[in-house]
Amino acid sequence: MSQQGETDRRQEDEWWRQLYGQPDPGGREPGDTLDDRYSSALSALGEEADGGGTVPRQTAPQDTAPPAAPGDGRYAGADPDTAPRGRTGTGPDEDDAGPPDTLRLRRPAPPPATAPRPWQYQGPPHPQAAPEPASEPPGLPPGWAPAEPAFEPLSSEAPHEPPAPAAPAAGSAPTVLPGPTLTEVAYIGDGPPTYDPEPTAWPAADPDGLDDLVPDTELDGARYGLLTVRTASVRGDSARYRGEPRRDAVLTARFGGGDDALLLIAVATGPRTSDTAHRAARDACTWMATAVGRSQARLSEDIRASRRGSLKSGLHRLTDRCYGRLRARGEDLGLDPAEYSATLRCLLLPADPDCRIRLFFGVGDGGLYRIRGGEWQDLDPWRPDERAETEDSPAVRFRFRASVARSGDTLLLCSGGLAGPLRGEPALAALLTQRWGAAGPPGLPAFLGDTQTRVKGYADDRTAVAVWDA
């Protein structure tokens, strides 16, 4: 044995040459078959031919030859990426694949060494093998520490105990109702609505008209100066169940920059009986926004100068042009004017914090409300006898209202799917007054949950736009 404990390399190389050398040209020797060679190889390595138990290995003669020098042909033809690194020819070749096109035989594992061998990794142990710190309680994974309450000083004398929650005062009641979550939508009234609260079926898709697909829900928000805006548009329970597209459309746009910017929020609803309702609603919002954006400079000037008459007539003309394009588009599609139409309601808000004018304009059904001083106010410019007009045949009657906001006001613009339950179930208006009044603007998920507070008998699409004045 050498100092490295390996067998005689020359004797082993001779054995390999005899085993896989060229056969005698005169013919095959008796017993020179693949099975015989396999048995001979196993015997040379100290294993039985039948794959059973092992036999004691023969003691190899003492290795007196000098170590193999680089370039002696030992690794000739070997892949440089798989050849051992930093080897000088001493030590067992445990990963040696042998000559090409030969049967690779696995050698027995070497006995455990008392000292690390030169080719073994001697770095730090695997992190999972490190013992757990004595300070950590049992049961926690290594490297984990018990959670500590925020903003509490750590004490080295005794484990920290969180303070017990204070007992509620007798007779106290929450002043704000708990908000509905996205997974458990609350309802108002004496019973739950008929349909499930979550989407059921998607609308059928046309491979050549994928641009017509409408998402189930849209959510948006922004803050400019004193204004905070939240918008949400949700497919109704009935449309979710029947696999119909959302007929409501909403568009938010900012024209200009700085204090001269104008914020436009447009809400449209297509007719219930039309298969192209979602297209008409989207076109109405887009074409209205295009007209407002091109007239942004003149509109901003009239708003700053409080020219109510000019604003009403100008926005009326822009709305008429929008509906003219809808009628022309319907004719191109071979549809009746009532089939390719939509109700349209818009808010136009200046971003200038010194200008508190809020403009509403549009055509058709919907709602316009305000929360001021904890009270719910209906600002819709419709007269009671006009509300008999339905969205299936919206009368092209222009609606306009200009108001001056106060600090703390909340303005709400909504489609008919939300305006209906707000008028029919006063408890819903009371709930939203609590949520959106003194409490201020909620986050986007909370706002979406509030708009999904359902009422039995109302299953249409819902679109809500809320604006808070700081």
From TrEMBL:
InterPro entries: PPM-type-like_dom_sf (IPR036457), PPM-type_phosphatase-like_dom (IPR001932). Residues 1-193 are annotated as: Disordered. It comes from Actinacidiphila glaucinigra. Residues 56-73 have a biased composition (Low complexity). Pfam families: PP2C_2. This is Protein phosphatase 2C. Residues 124-144 have a biased composition (Pro residues). Residues 235-446 form the PPM-type phosphatase domain. Residues 1-16, 26-38 have a biased composition (Basic and acidic residues).
